[in-house]
Amino acid sequence: MEQHKPHRRLTTTDRTGSADLLSLSPGSGLHNALAGALRQEDGTVRISGRGCSVSPRMVVILCPLYAPGTLADSTLIPNPGSISESRVGGKWTVYKQVMAAADDYLKLAGERLKVHAVFADRGILLAHAPDTADHSAADRHSEVYRAAFEGFCSPRGIQYTYSTFTDIGVALPRFFTVGSERIPGVNLEDPSLEQRQGTMIDLVNEYLRRIGEPTWIVNNNDNRKRMKDLLNMAVATPSMVFDLVAGYVAFDYRLPGIAGKTGMYLQAERMGQLLTIANFTDESRSMPRIDVLTV
């Protein structure tokens, strides 16, 4: 079952002067502006985050436009006319709300929001072996996102940069077929992996080493607990969790290089456990982050 309870990850530090204006601390103006933009009809605010002093630079990760369905049934919409057709359409709604609210608030500090959008065109989860149509669909999705950012940001005067995982050198294969082999001789569908969180972390690290990504997950109690929560998701098998974690971690360590250590990382997910993947690496755990649990 998908969990919609927000995970509180906003840290608090006493600051004075202009730092208060550019802060994500609870009760700060920026925090309140974002919370107001994301208020749900039932009166709740589905936002959490971390980071006090922030810069006006924001990184947004864009998922492929999957057809409605479960993770196990992941297929790409061949020729989407809009982002809203996808099961991840709710993320785009959230991103627009956050970008607009953040830019409006940053104007108070004499700043304007600068966005770096990155389309995840590698590590795409598929329920079947990829074919030519899937490659064409992924290319089309990038075009749809690029047009959407141009249409949203340019009229508002928001500066944006658009790139893909391929552009920035993420070494993942373009597609992950559900249940297929990642490491020779390792069965990632083995149900016992659900109880062997440390082993799963070691396997992700081994895979990242094999594809040449210079990052890893520290195998400690905190990360084993995060992995346990992910493996306990009813909607994902161990191999799907492996693919999701490897896919995010292969990118996350690049975040400070893209937005700076005080740049904001915006992510939105329908499952709270997926938001915690950003805590696996020091780079994404320590930078200011806006986590939104979508409905």
Question: TL;DR?
Answer:
This protein has 295 residues and is an alpha/beta fold. It contains ten helices and eight strands.
Task: Please characterize this protein's 3D structure.
There is one protein chain. With 295 residues, this protein is an alpha/beta fold. It has a domain at 18-181 and 258-293. 38% of the residues lie in helices and 13% in strands. The protein is built from 10 helices and 8 strands. It has helices at residues 18-21, 29-37, 89-106, 132-156, 197-211, 221-231, 238-252, 255-259, 272-275, 282-286, and strands at residues 47-50, 57-62, 114-119, 124-126, 159-164, 175-177, 264-269, 289-293. The strands form 2 sheets. Strands 1-8-7-2-3-5 form a 6-stranded mixed beta sheet. A two-stranded parallel ribbon has the order 4-6. Helix 3 links the parallel strand 2 and strand 3. Helix 2 (29-37) runs antiparallel to helix 3 and helix 5 (197-211) packs across helix 6. The longest helix is centred in the middle third of the chain and has 25 residues, at 132-156. The two termini are 13 Å apart.
